[in-house]
C-alpha cells in the first residue's frame, strides 16, 4: 500500500507525457479537468490527451458530484442582516431593499416600521439607512444605481422584471450577467428559460447545468427540480440525494417526496428520520416572535 502511494506521488512530480521531473527550472501544471496528472507544457498536454481523456472525464465527473451532492449549510437567501436568523424559503416573508439589495425579514421590517411611526421618524432602510423612496421613479433610480455597481442581486431583479414583462431578450442578458457573478436565483431562471425555450433554443444540457449551479448555491427549488430530472431519467439514487438535500434546507415539497419514497422503500428509515429532523430544524430556525407578529398583522398580505 505504502509503495503504491509513493509511486503515485512520484508520478505527480513528473510530466505525464514526457516524464520530465519537476525541478527548479521546470514547473509542472495540473490538468484542469481531473487534477490527477501534471504537464510541463501545452504541447505535452495535447499529445497526452488521447490516452488521458477517458480517465480525466471520469475523475472530473466524480469531482463535480462531490461538489453537487454536498449538503448546503443554508439556502441561497442566507440570513437576515438585522436579526441574523435564516430567511424563509417563502419570498413573501422577506423584503428586498432596492437601495442596497439586502433582503430583510418581515419581522425586522415590521418592527422598524412600527418604531418609525410611533416616534414619527423619517422612513429609512433598516440596513443602509438610506431614505425610503418617495416615488416609483426614485425607487427605479436606486435600483439602477445598484445595477451599475454590478450588484448581482439588483441585476437579477432587473432581469426578473424584464422577464415578467415578456422582454425575454433583455431578461436573458441580465440573468446571464448575474449568474456570472454567482447569483443562484439567476441560474435558476436561466434553467427555466432553457426548459421553456424563452427567446433561446430549448437545451436540456444547459438547463441541467444552470439547475446544478443554482443547487450548489443553495437554491432548494433548483435542487428539487434536479431530483425530478434524475427521477425521469431513471437515476433514482441521485434523485433521492437531491430531494433529501432540499428537504434539509426546509423545502416542503421535497420532504413530501422523501416521505413517499420512504413508504415505497426507496429511502431508508435512517435517511428519512435525518431528513425529517433537519427539515424541522431549518423551518424552526426561521421563526421569531417578531416574524410571527408581522404575519399575524396581515400587513404583508395573507400568509
Describe the 3D structure.
The model is unreliable at 1-11 (pLDDT under 50). β1 and β2 form a beta hairpin. The protein has a two-stranded antiparallel ribbon. It has a two-stranded antiparallel sheet with strand order 3-4. α5 (152-164) packs antiparallel against α6 (168-180). With 303 residues, it is mostly helical. Helices cover 60% and strands 3% of the residues. The relative contact order is 0.09.
In short:
By secondary structure, the chain is mainly alpha-helical. 60% of the residues lie in helices and 3% in strands.
Shape: globular
Q: Give me the count of strands.
A: 4
Average pLDDT confidence is 92
- The radius of gyration is 24 Å
Strand order of the largest sheet: 1-2
Measured by DSSP, the beta-strand proportion falls in: under 5%
Which sheet architecture does the biggest sheet show?
2 strands, antiparallel
Uncertain segments: 1-11
Helix content: 55-70%
Structure classification = mainly alpha
Question: What is the strand and helix layout of this fold?
Answer:
Blueprint: H1 2-12, E1 29-30, E2 38-39, H2 42-68, E3 94-96, E4 103-105, H3 106-119, H4 136-148, H5 152-164, H6 168-180, H7 184-196, H8 204-216, H9 220-232, H10 236-248, H11 252-263, H12 269-285, H13 289-297
